[in-house]
């Protein structure tokens, strides 16, 4: 038995601030198959199988009905011909190549299907999800026929024009040149996959080699010694979320570990040699080798949590850090990667060679580490200015 119905937000994700998709649900022998209509609505914009509370309600409702009609066309045709109806055959009929509807979103839906199938770390998979959401918001690349070099140029310009990531469904941080480049990487990889599966004949990025560059992000944000001391002096209620976030930040700030590496920390990998806890391993994200040692503040944190690092979801962690900055009297936005920057600049300020800092951080080459040295050069020049002002006050001209 096969039934076709329209359903909104079957994953129960929609709120007044978060939109969710409308699907056509096809039930085949009691097993449901969900076909996206490409229509995204907020919780208060759907009532009794219809779009409401929107100026474009009629247009969106028509789009949903077109997809439903397409599904029914295929099911009825297959039944009349005695063909087996499968999830793959329905989706292929609704979305594929020449048969896709002018208002359909075949390419976007294909991306939604493929992302869960990619062999990726969870942090990398989230980047693909963010990219998919941005592409959906961009709106000019939804069908296979939209995959042109011109549209990719327009996407690049749109991403660079955004004031912040929130406009592209990315959160609150500004989308840097490096961030835009990373989303181009996601797009290119997905198109290579489509090429491999015969969905497209050519990857438009092949015509754009060298056009989109990563750029150099020299915006190194780190905490001064007094700011770090203010965070360490905080004593939130033991076991609270704020306490866990504060301890995780201290852990990062005295190990130099990025968020993903800190969350993957395993004390059993460290060996106690000559009274020191030491380790050499590889970073989660890049696989680059690094050398680690647990300094006293880190050991103090680990002892508080039975030698385990507090587990906090990244977006929640960054929200808690805002509250910690406020409590510590730090008048700027605190984020997880600032701990890694703080460790690097602190180490360089205390005489650690730039090569060794690179080894501690697990960076591919010293050029990346030199960004921290450039930041410190500004600090040195500021100190020279201070010395010059002091000399002007103390002694006459020669």
Please give the largest β-sheet.
Answer: 3 strands, antiparallel
- The CA-CA distance between the termini, in Å, is 100 Å
Q: Give the name of the CATH superfamily of the largest domain.
A: Intergrase catalytic core
**Rounded Rg:** 27 Å
Widest sheet, order of strands: 1-2-3
CATH hierarchy: architecture of the largest domain? Orthogonal Bundle
Shape: elongated
> How would you classify the quaternary structure?
single chain
- Element string (H = helix, E = strand): EEEEEHHHHHHHHHEEEHHHHH
Strand residue percentage: 5-15%
CATH fold call of the largest domain: hpI Integrase, Chain A
In total, the number of strands is 8
- SSE-based structural type: mainly alpha
């Amino acid at each position: 038995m096969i039934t076709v119905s329209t359903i909104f937000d079957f994953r129960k994700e929609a709120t007044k601030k978060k939109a969710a998709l409308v699907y056509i649900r096809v039930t085949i022998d009691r097993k449901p198959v969900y076909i996206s209509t490409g229509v995204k609505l907020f919780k208060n914009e759907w009532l009794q199988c219809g779009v409401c509370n929107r100026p474009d309600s009629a247009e969106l409702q028509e789009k949903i009905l077109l997809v439903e009609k397409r599904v029914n066309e295929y099911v009825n045709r297959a039944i009349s011909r005695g063909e087996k109806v499968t999830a793959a055959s329905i989706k292929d009929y609704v979305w594929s190549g020449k048969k896709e509807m002018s208002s359909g979103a075949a390419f976007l839906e294909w991306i939604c299907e493929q992302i869960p199938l990619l062999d990726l770390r969870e942090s990398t998979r989230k980047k693909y999800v963010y990219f998919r959401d941005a592409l959906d918001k961009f709106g000019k690349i939804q069908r296979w026929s939209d995959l042109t070099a011109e549209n990719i140029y327009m996407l690049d310009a749109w991403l660079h024009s955004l004031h912040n990531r929130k406009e592209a469904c990315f959160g609150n941080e500004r989308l840097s040149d490096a961030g835009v480049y990373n989303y181009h990487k996601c797009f290119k990889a997905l198109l290579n996959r489509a090429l491999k599966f015969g969905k497209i004949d050519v990857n438009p990025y092949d015509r754009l080699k060298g056009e989109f560059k990563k750029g150099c992000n020299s915006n190194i944000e780190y905490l001064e010694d007094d700011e770090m001391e203010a965070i360490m002096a905080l004593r939130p209620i033991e076991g609270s979320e704020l306490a866990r976030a504060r301890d995780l930040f201290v852990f990062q700030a005295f190990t130099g570990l990025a968020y993903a590496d800190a969350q993957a920390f395993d004390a059993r990998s460290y060996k106690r040699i000559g009274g020191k806890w030491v380790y050499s391993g590889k970073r989660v994200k890049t696989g680059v080798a690094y050398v680690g040692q647990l300094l006293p503040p880190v050991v103090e944190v680990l002892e508080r949590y039975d030698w385990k690092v507090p587990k906090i979801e990244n977006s929640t962690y960054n929200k808690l850090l805002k509250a910690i900055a406020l409590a510590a009297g730090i008048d700027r936005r605190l984020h997880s990667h600032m701990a890694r920057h703080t460790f690097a600049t602190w180490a360089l300020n205390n005489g650690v060679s730039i090569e060794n800092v690179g080894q501690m951080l697990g960076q591919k080459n010293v050029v990346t580490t030199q960004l921290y040295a450039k930041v410190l050069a500004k600090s040195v020049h500021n100190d020279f200015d201070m010395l010059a002002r002091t000399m002007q006050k103390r002694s006459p001209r020669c």
